[in-house]
Amino acid sequence: MNEPLKILFTTSEGTLTGATQSLFYLAEGLAQRGHSVIIACPHKSLLYGMLDGSQARRMAVEFKGKFDLASIRAIRDLIFSEKIDIINAQQSADRYISIFAKKLFKLPVKIVHTRRQRPLGSGGAVQRNFYVRNTDKIIVVSESLKRTFVESGYPPEHIEAIYNGMHPSFFARADNAKTAELRDKFTIDRGEVVVGCISRMKNQEQLVRAMQHLPSHYSLFFAGIEEGIFDELSRKLGLKNRIIYAGIIPREEVVDFYRLFDVFVLPSTMDGFGLVLVEAMGLGVPVVATRSQGIIDVLDGEKNGLWFEDGDIEQLAIKIKSVVEDEITRARLIENGLTAAHKKFTIEKTIDEYESFFESLI
After folding, report:
1. Helix (H) or strand (E) run with residue 307 in it
2. Is the pLDDT of residue 264 over 60?
């Protein structure tokens, strides 16, 4: 390793998302390798609490908007006092703030932005040019997301693709006894096929609609969204008593839900990677997901999981049924998913690539 780096990560979010978990593992891993790592995030965020006792230090910065002068000054002060080499900004507000802080105060720091979703296009060419001119590089979380950015007009040499990775401690926390308790709590019967989705709101409606095309002993299990949110739709579709809601669950309890599922489904077009797919795969749960940027990298040509075209409800149902009922397909997906989660999409690989990339900028 070269001289230790001084890295400031910023995020205005820090809620229960894969991005929060990824950032925590990355910062902790870099700090354990001897780098000076600080995460600036809102004081009341989940991430701020997660960092209690971590080797990566935390600083409370509220990021109340892209023009928040208090946050701009706070970033300036951190850069000067800690002699920061690199700012890696994660979310929209802090991406702007990192740029404004450098420009206003002529800060001697490299700026890198991380993007986990496709560019939404609301700022068009003006926003794109602003980001390209005022950052040293932009990191995206998959090769297919990089292609999406390049197709949107970003210079390919300005985009670096680094995959997210899972920490082995996540899988080690899985407790079969707790999963059995959850099975009793939600009265999941033997012989009942459970189709699971752990995610904030990401187009789950099409998963509800797919249940019309599946046998009556298939149930749908949602965690991470508001309880009862699809009650009206399920009544219209005649799906009474076939949807289970766990509500919003603490991050530390998520791992014990996966093994309730016979198949895990992510019906999203938002994800630039889809870390929940790797979580499920690493616990031996086969997956189905939208054929969308980022997700296709995880599924790897349907080697690690099956995909469906967004909006094709019947195809989604067919893929779910295939995973559950075709023993050869199921066994293949479980085996390949375990290998991908534990050997390809690992946090150690992610840390290695970030470390090398950051060092190349200095």
Report:
1. strand 306-308
2. yes
3-state secondary structure of 45: coil
CA nearest neighbour of 1 among 238, 361, 352: 352
Rounded alpha-carbon distances, angstroms, from residue 259 to 174, 235, 268, 293: 9, 28, 21, 26
Amino acid at 24: F
Provide CATH code, domain 168-344.
3.40.50.2000
203-237 pLDDT per residue, tens: 899 999 999 999 999 999 999 999 999 999 999 99
- Which residues are within 8 A (CB) of 206 and not within 5 positions of it... i.e. 6 or more apart? 267, 310, 311, 313, 316
Domain with CATH 3.40.50.2000 in the chain: 6-165+346-361, 168-344
CATH no. for 6-165+346-361: 3.40.50.2000
Give yes or no for a contact between 86 and 361, defined as CB atoms under 8 angstroms apart: yes
pLDDT value for 19: 85
pLDDT of amino acid 16: 66
pLDDT exceeds 70 at position 332 = yes
- Over residues 135-149, mean pLDDT: 95
What string of H, E and C letters represents the secondary structure of 195-255? EEEECCCCCCHHHHHHHHHCCCCEEEEEECCCCCCCHHHHHHCCCCCCEEECCCCCHHHHH
Residue at token pair 């002993």: 217
Contact status, residue 257 vs residue 273, Cβ threshold 8 Å: no
How far apart are alpha carbons 38 and 283 in whole angstroms? Answer: 31
Question: What is the spatial distance between Cα 5 and Cα 82, in angstroms, rounded to a whole number?
Answer: 11
Question: Pick from 71, 53, 57: which is nearest to 12 by CA?
Answer: 71
Q: Cα Rg for the chain, rounded, in angstroms?
A: 21
Of 67-81, 195-209, 255-269, 313-327, least confident by mean pLDDT is 195-209
SS3 99: helix
